[in-house]
Amino acid sequence: MFKFSSSSEWSLENELRCFVIFKQLEAENFTRGMQSDLCREFESKSNLSFNTINAKVGNFKSESGVTGDSHVSEATKYLVAQYGSMSLPETKALLSGYLLCQKANT
Known about the structure:
The chain has five helices and no strands. It is an all-alpha fold.
């Protein structure tokens, strides 16, 4: 569905994980410092850098109208358009469903 560079660690799974971070921030009214904390936590569990994760979460904020325009990927645009109205629990379920499908297909 989406093409991610084979030379990067980026994937639909990581896109969804950043979307969940965005929804956590949204649920907490974008509490100051929370984005950095959540991005650092994800960084510790992935091969992605803090800056990459933080920028992607920022792209979700931009695409959702929370901040000004930025350059966003087609995957980010799609997730916001299709699933942007979901609650945090629904977004977590979306990620879980994706991971289950990935596991079933391996």
